[in-house]
Specification:
This protein has ten helices and 15 strands. By secondary structure, the chain is α/β, with parallel strands linked by helices. The chain has two domains: 4-211, DHBP synthase; 235-312, Threonylcarbamoyl-AMP synthase, C-terminal domain (Rossmann fold, 3-Layer(aba) Sandwich), CATH 3.40.50.11030. The structure holds threonylcarbamoyladenylate and magnesium ion.
Amino acid sequence: MSNIYTANPANIKKAAEIIRSGHLVAFPTETVYGLGANVYDAKAVASIFAAKERPSFNPLISHIAEIDFLSEYVETDSRAIELARHFWPGPFTMVLKRKEHTSSIDLACAGLPTATVRMPNHPVALNLIRSSGVPIVAPSANRSQTISPTTAQHVADSLGNRVDMILDGGPCSVGVESTIVDVTGKNVVLLRAGGIALEDIEAFLNEKVLVSHGEADRPSSPGQMLKHYAPKHRFQINVLHPEKGVFYIGFGNQQNTDLNLSPCGDLKEAAANLFAYMRIADEMSGDKGIAIAPIPEQGLGLAINDRIRRASYEK
Ligand code: TXA
Ligand code: MG
């Protein structure tokens, strides 16, 4: 039997009870679907790692619904509050020094002295957090090292009955994960390109944001394990003229593509389609694998290029 439920008020209420009772709910956000648990329940947090087969040294993002809560949970300063006011709710995540040191939060934060917080811009997510009455810790709702889910069905395909309930709020509008910045130091540092463009953060701060390239297999340089978003087939990037037999994902004004991320060359549209098209390509492609057109390295193109570079990584 399917565990997908339409995200109506009655089902959101049911989902909040499931969260409060220490179980897992997958829910839509504007970026990707999240696999949520009560941040104050260590057993529930542990079951996220088990369901995803995720190494427990890889910390999780806490999702909140009120900015005021931020200063209870983490150390804030005026810059963090201003960033939150400007970019929340939205695909923007901040790494801050944490205040709480309970066992469940230690586990969620993988023992790091920092916590990662965001307020998602999705009515279902916000409603679920408010009805649960606790911050909801949530990674993307997929098995570790596979493509993030942008529909409820993607979650079901990846996690099946490892999740107690999947709230279906339709396809995610942004389609790539949130931008993560570390705001614990003097300079703001970009840890993961995502749904808010780097240029927008720099324009708001009126200063340069440093870009961390992380280390391939160290958790403190987040999400940035090289083998991530791994399709089953060979995946080539920056290809303008694909070989015959390759499943080709185009971008912009191109003929003879199997799929086109955005025929009019809109990077937002391309980001929203990216993960679903990677899944389709993986289903449809044969031995020759998949190739994808060059994507401009600006705006949401940074996040798109980051994800497809990882998908193309061969060890
Ligand atoms: O858009 C998103 O951010 C989605 C939705 C569900 O909110 N969530 C998401 O979570 O992408 P996840 O777990 O798949 O990716 C979060 C990344 C991980 O790569 C993790 O290493 C990093 O954030 N991270 C979490 N806490 C951190 C911390 N304290 N310091 C550094 N990196 C951290
Ligand atoms: Mg993920």
